[in-house]
Amino acid sequence: MKNLWFYVIAICFAIVSCTKAKTDYEAEISTVVTEHYEFKEAVSINSAGYKISIEALNGTFYKGYNEIRLKITNQTNQPVNASAIKFLPVMTGADGSKTSCPHKYDLVYKADSNYFSGYTVFTSESNAAGSWELYVSFTINNQTYDIQKDISVEEQTNKNLNMTTFTGKDGEQYYIALVAPQKPKVAENELVAGIYKFDKPSMPAGTFPDPSQFSYSEVSGYTLQLDPRMPEPSMGNHSSINNKDLIQQNDGLYYGVVNYTMTGNWTLNFIMLNQNGQIVKGTVVPKDFTPGVEGVKSELYIDILF
Q1: Per-residue pLDDT tens digits for 225-265
Q2: Domain 39-154 in CATH: superfamily?
Q3: Which residues are CB-contacts of 109 (< 8 A; sequence separation ≥ 6)?
Q4: Same fold for the pair 39-154 and 158-305
């Protein structure tokens, strides 16, 4: 009986060891999460006597969701009366192919702060496999200016701002990007995400960069059902109470509540429903307590860490 007991312990240890070999949770938990709240200039472009300044949090473009602020000034650094601001990010692959990512093409003027507001959801970092450019156009005194600028997109090290892309059961290409919180608390946290869809072109491409070939829209009227779990083997894939599914609000983003009962690795398991309540992507996660085994995930999920 004693030998059998030692054998069981050895098997359990082997299971846990193999699982930790796949995912080094302790190393992940030691990661420092930095919050960024200050907008700084990420890139500037000088053209035809105007300066176009594009700001982002921490002055950096990251993979995932980026709120952007665009300002246009003249040679004396005074704001100018510009209109029809168009914003298009384009990635060129190593094979020369051109793609884009979810973005706000027509930027919105914020009169109280004197800048044009938008967003972009970069789907990859700048690397040998692909480089990013911004194509911007604006109109001043009935004259339209078109400019472009190479930019760098950095890795997003804050896992609370992770994103995912997938093909839904309807054959459409979707993107989910976490927007907030940057640094969750052990509490009920407001969870904010953007959900976007690629708009398949209905016409052949015109002169590059033809925006009709790189169009994305905010998904409207969907529901993102939420089931957060702690997938680490020692946690048994347990969940929490008082979570709320994500529903779209007036700003186009989706808001819900996630209750983190402790710090560590969490998986946000999702089931996405369309306006008619039909499943677009996602599967139910078993409620079984599974100590020693890495937790089962939905087919639609995003891992976070705090």
Answers
A1: 999 999 999 999 999 999 999 999 999 999 999 999 999 99
A2: Immunoglobulins (2.60.40.10)
A3: 83, 85, 115, 116, 117
A4: yes
